[in-house]
Amino acid sequence: MTKHQGVALVVGGASGMGRLAAQRWSDSGRPCVAVDINEQGLQETAARHSRIVTRCLDVTHASDVDQLVKEVVAEFGALERVYNGAAIQPSQLLLNQDRAEIHRIMEINYGGLVNVSLSTLSSMVEQGHGSLINFGSIAGWVPNMHFGAYAASKFAVVAFSEVLYHENRGRGVHVCCVCPSVVDTPLMLQATSNPKIVEVGPAPMAPVKVLTAIDKAIAKQRFWVFPGLHTQIGWRLRRFFPRLMWAVDHRAEGF
Q1: DSSP state at residue 10
Q2: How far is CA 23 from the centre of its chain?
Q3: What is the CATH number of domain 7-253?
Q4: Which residues contact 226 (CB under 8 A, 6 or more apart)?
Q5: Which terminus of the chain, N or C, has less C-beta within 10 A?
Q6: pTM exceeding 0.90
Q7: Are 161 and 200 in contact (CB under 8 A)?
Q8: How far is CA 8 from CA 81, 93, 209, 242, in A?
């Protein structure tokens, strides 16, 4: 397979895995465009990384996403990799959660991912190469109390990404969906409703572990990425023993 040296577009580049992905790509000597709605976070991402340029973007506005992709391609050339990771994770029992917040989670986590996927993948199909990494979550397979809205958005991401992959096989592009367990990033701090399952679950994994798993999946042209042994075990337990997984959740929450 021919190796290309194009630009990476990192969506959700102001913190967490997006920040690290942008910096790693830049450190390899290639240009990177980091985008986010958090302008201060973007500045921190790009500090001391001259190959990272930043753009403020609200991924829920499809026309803005299309325009940004056109500008990136015009300025830097072919898109080689897209990290599609903008997300929020407010937690709450569903009957206690504000309806507007539930809809906002879906609008960003799923709707924004759809906007970025369609715009960037169209460009990569036209050029004949490139990789699109959609960030799902183990929550897209294993729902938990307090995370109903977040899990629903990630279930949607998982289904959308799987269909997108199969519809575009053989077109020179690679789509993958990464579904990590809890990762040690600022996103986990948004779970403020005191979900007990977080306390009894595995320790958060390092972001670099997820990014390394993505690199390996791209090299081997794999679609699913389940970083870490406990993520893979959780995925299998949900498939074959769903009642056991809910029993663990109820025991943790105490009802």
Answers
A1: E
A2: 16
A3: 3.40.50.720
A4: 138, 179, 180, 213, 232, 235
A5: C
A6: yes
A7: no
A8: 5, 37, 19, 38
